[in-house]
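Reagents: none. Just compute today. Ribosomal RNA small subunit methyltransferase G.
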Amino acid sequence: MAQEVEDRARLVFGEHYDKAVAFTALLTEHGVERGLIGPREVDRLWERHVLNSAVVAELIPQGSRVVDVGSGAGLPGLPLAIVRPDLDLTLLEPMARRVAWLTECVDALGLDVTVLRGRAEEKSVIDVLSDSDVVTARAVAPLDRLARWCLPLLRPGGLLVALKGESAAEEVERDAEAVRRAGGVRSRVTSCGGDVLELPTTVVLVERDERASRRDGARRRRKDR
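Predicted 3D structure written out:
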């Protein structure tokens, strides 16, 4: 690791730096062979993936109940779990081989994290994870689908934190109506880590409508009749 990158990693992870190094080493050693990352990503794991994920922690309130949807290689979930052990974090992933990877990482790093196999839109998952404070997602789906899948996992007023690329603002404008129909309000684009990263992390934030609980209750009452 170059000294400049190490300095940034130490600044971001602080006392948890050694665990971040251990996680990145696991990804370096096993990520390509297990289909978690592409071969070209190995040399830029810190900047493009690990630090890119960890800096999003600045958007998440203390002690939040967080679900990382489509966790895959563990991004952003595992860097968040490392830098913020105060979070009640669940890694949600549908693919068995990736669930196995996530479980191995959690055990190896000694993290207090739940790994759950499933898809965000499944009723059994919603039953377990609904009323979460924050849902994160990185390179999972376009914003319209992401809102439809993720917003039902949030409590009213909860926050979807979607890590996106340079076209984030265009995506917010394009999918505004779909997000609204899914129960999202106050969609906006922000960035994280500008003081430590050469390329700050671009994030789309979407709140779940505060009125969602009343609408959900009305739907349940209609179904029960």
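The two ends are 62 Å apart (CA to CA).
Action item: order primers for follow-up constructs.
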